[in-house]
């Protein structure tokens, strides 16, 4: 291949039917020439800032681009301080920026068809769905590494919940649960601790999830907020016996109203508010007694549910307002699941587990970029926690 680009020669080659793009395309020498000149200019600019440094030959590597392959001579400096920006070290493909664009569009929930249209509009290059899938598959090793990464020793608050999707398995689509764990670190910042996939939501699998957290370095959780899944508190305490478990009040209310006639729901809800908005556990229990006196005959299943789960429903009453606000509901993790649904709204189902997990993983990376600030009134909250959980949190604080 001619290493210098000659416009007249290129025009003659095109007239003769030569390929413009692809391997040995007529534009390849131009891309090489421009890239080579840009690298030389980068080095000259770098050397102008280092008086005792100078050029030190070149190293060759083969570059791939949309217009074909070519050998590129990368200039070097004697001090070894030159870091090319146009072509990074170990980069061998000129379209890396296109791959990054594909991943960015994918992380925003765009379908493969939408991504293909965007890329063609921006760069004039057509990508098949198979090619886009191969690009996004490069996320999978990062996902696996993220799933196995070490975690912090203690998390003051953790929320656990599941969201369900349909995934193709053995030729048919089946419903599966994605288990999400959201924690708050000692600095008050949120972190997704992990994503786990299972056939269905159940306490037995949650036990495996909690064991994995423990194996990855989590030694203590102060308070865990969960929905009303049967056996959930026992699963948590089997791995973290000192953890206090708060059942989500919002879940409990929703489940209660399912069994209350529509004509009574407004009045029943008014009476429920007196329970969960009470100033103390004792006051709440008085209101629960009144609720049973008024509605126990008509809705015994609902009252029994509150009585059976009361120990874990009432955990938040022992804490001041700032902590109550954080733990009484799982809304904080449900907001993460709402983001998941935005990402997956164009997908009725997924062809395999990795296609779902890699999309959610990319969504998490985007979300966590915004989690730069600690939770509201965090300094006060930590001070309160150090009193309520004396000896369990102070050893981890850097003071």
TrEMBL record:
Keywords: DNA recombination, DNA-binding, Transposable element, Transposition. It comes from the Bacteria. One of its GO terms (biological process) is DNA transposition. The keyword Glycoprotein does not apply. One of its GO terms (molecular function) is DNA binding. Signal peptide: none annotated. Required for the transposition of the insertion element. Belongs to the transposase mutator family. PANTHER family: MUTATOR FAMILY TRANSPOSASE, TRANSPOSASE FOR INSERTION SEQUENCE ELEMENT IS1081. This is Mutator family transposase. It comes from Sulfurimonas marina.
């Amino acid at each position: 291949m001619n290493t210098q680009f000659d416009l007249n020669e290129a025009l003659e080659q095109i007239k003769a039917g030569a390929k413009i793009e692809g391997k040995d395309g007529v534009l390849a020498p131009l891309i090489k020439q421009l890239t080579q000149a840009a690298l030389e200019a980068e080095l000259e600019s770098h050397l102008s800032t280092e008086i005792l440094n100078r050029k030190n030959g070149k190293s060759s590597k083969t570059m791939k681009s949309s217009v074909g392959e070519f050998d590129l001579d990368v200039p070097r400096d004697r001090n070894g301080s030159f870091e090319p920006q146009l072509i990074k070290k170990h980069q061998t493909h000129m379209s890396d920026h296109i791959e990054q664009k594909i991943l960015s569009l994918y992380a925003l929930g765009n379908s493969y068809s939408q991504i293909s249209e965007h890329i063609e509009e921006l760069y004039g290059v057509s990508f098949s769905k198979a090619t886009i899938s191969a690009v996004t598959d490069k996320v999978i090793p990062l996902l696996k590494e993220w799933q196995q990464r070490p975690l912090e020793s203690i998390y003051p608050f953790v929320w656990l919940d599941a969201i369900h999707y349909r995934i193709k398995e053995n030729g048919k689509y089946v419903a599966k649960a994605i288990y999400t764990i959201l924690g708050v670190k000692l600095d008050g910042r949120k972190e997704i601790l992990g994503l786990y996939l299972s056939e269905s939501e159940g306490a037995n699998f949650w036990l495996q999830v909690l064991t994995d957290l423990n194996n990855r370095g989590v030694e203590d959780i102060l308070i865990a907020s969960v929905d009303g899944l049967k056996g959930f508190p026992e699963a948590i305490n089997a791995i973290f016996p000192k953890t206090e478990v708060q059942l989500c009040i919002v879940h409990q209310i929703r489940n209660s109203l399912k069994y209350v006639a529509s004509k009574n729901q407004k009045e029943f809800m008014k009476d429920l508010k007196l329970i969960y908005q009470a100033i103390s556990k004792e006051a709440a229990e008085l209101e629960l007694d009144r609720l049973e006196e008024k509605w126990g005959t008509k809705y015994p299943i609902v009252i029994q549910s509150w009585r059976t789960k009361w120990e874990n429903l009432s955990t938040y009453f022992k804490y001041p307002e700032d902590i109550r606000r954080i733990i009484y509901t799982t809304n904080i993790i449900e907001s993460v699941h709402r983001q998941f649904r935005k990402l997956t709204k164009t997908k009725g189902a997924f062809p395999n587990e990795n296609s779902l997990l890699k999309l959610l993983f990319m969504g998490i990376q985007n979300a966590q970029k915004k989690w730069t600030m600690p939770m509201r009134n965090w300094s006060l909250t930590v001070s309160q926690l150090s009193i309520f959980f004396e000896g369990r949190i102070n050893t981890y604080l850097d003071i």
